[in-house]
Automatic annotation (TrEMBL):
Protein name: Putative transposase
GO biological process entries: DNA recombination; transposition
PANTHER family per record: BLL1675 PROTEIN (PTHR35528:SF3)
Superkingdom of origin organism: Bacteria
Pfam families: DDE_Tnp_IS240
Gene Ontology molecular function: DNA binding
Keyword DNA-binding among UniProt keywords: yes
Species per Swiss-Prot/TrEMBL record: Deinococcus hopiensis KR-140
Lineage of source species: Bacteria, Thermotogati, Deinococcota, Deinococci, Deinococcales
Transmembrane stretches, start-end: none
Length: 301
């Protein structure tokens, strides 16, 4: 398997692309093959120094491929805004943590500014990432968990595929048939009808599956919650709980929905392959994810 160095940066695949894609799951394979043109554009770009002074600010390493144009009425260029958003949604940090990391790089910004930029750009980035995602697996794992928003109990309905990629999540105040139907309507509006659906023994799932004709041909497998068999969707709830603790609880429903939506898309973007794969393949996967994020940032903002 041959690789070429991109100006001293991470390697870019030249030969053996099909062989690399053969080791990935179907969804990641399509994503890898469609993103090769993005990596080829960065192959001829020279690598800059560890940090570069621009307008009195030190630019982070790895974001030199992003254009430094400034969005309208914004003080910082697009590379800084994208880097702050990426840190916040990739590593489950608080706004003050991101502020401290940017300050260490010579970028002086308040946590309130970061919060406002996240509110403004999160829906745009979420929609752009959603349109670029490949077609995920045909086995759905559905579950719901309780979330406190400003002291009011809400239910977070979540669907993941067999590879752990988040398909859809929806915050609702109830856990009845109407809430389950709204969840399935959004799920079917963004994805094709699956072959198998795994749920717990909540009766609302069965009622909706009997009510919607398009789901009559789908195999429905009910999992006993106490047996801990539905581990894929249970594990997908862990980042949500970590983010809730980092923020000391969620405050607003709409902001929470937007935050979790972008976090899920970034998580799908950076979902690494199994640890048994070679290190070069994992690094290539990470490089592809970063380049796709840069492409999305330029298109959405």
């Amino acid at each position: 398997m041959n690789t070429a160095t991109c100006g001293g940066a991470a390697g870019v695949w030249q030969n053996g692309d099909r062989a690399v894609a053969a080791n990935l799951n179907p969804g990641r394979r399509r994503w890898f093959l469609t993103s090769l043109h993005v990596m080829e554009k960065a192959a001829g770009t020279r690598r800059r120094d560890l940090t570069e002074r621009r307008s009195g600010n030190l630019m982070p390493v790895g974001w030199w491929a992003v254009t430094d144009r400034k969005p309208y009425r914004h003080r910082f260029p697009l590379s800084v805004i994208g880097y702050a958003l990426w840190l916040y949604h990739r590593f489950l940090l608080s706004q003050r943590d991101v502020q401290e990391l940017l300050h260490e790089r010579g970028i002086r910004v308040s946590h309130e500014t970061l919060r406002q930029r996240n509110i403004k750009f999160a829906p745009l980035l979420t929609e752009e990432l959603r349109h670029r995602e490949p077609r995920w697996g045909s086995r759905w794992h559905l579950d719901e968990r309780c979330v406190q928003i400003a002291g009011v109990k809400h239910w977070l309905w979540r669907a993941v595929d067999e590879h752990g990629n988040v398909l859809v999540h929806l915050l609702q105040e109830h856990r009845d048939t109407e809430a389950a139907k709204s969840f399935f309507v959004r799920l079917l509006g963004q994805h094709n009808v699956p072959k198998v659906i795994h749920t717990d023994k909540l009766w609302s799932y069965g009622a909706v599956l009997r009510e919607l004709p398009v789901l009559h041909v789908v195999e429905h497998i009910r999992v006993v919650s106490t047996a801990r068999c539905n581990t894929i969707v249970e594990q997908s709830h862990r980042p949500t709980r970590q983010q809730e603790r980092a923020q000391l609880g969620f405050k607003r429903r709409q902001r929470t929905q937007e935050l979790l939506a972008l976090h899920a898309r970034v998580s799908n973007l950076h979902r690494h392959t199994r640890t048994t794969t070679p290190a070069a393949l994992r690094r290539s996967d990470q490089t592809t994810a970063l380049l796709l994020w840069q492409e999305v940032l330029q298109q959405a903002v």
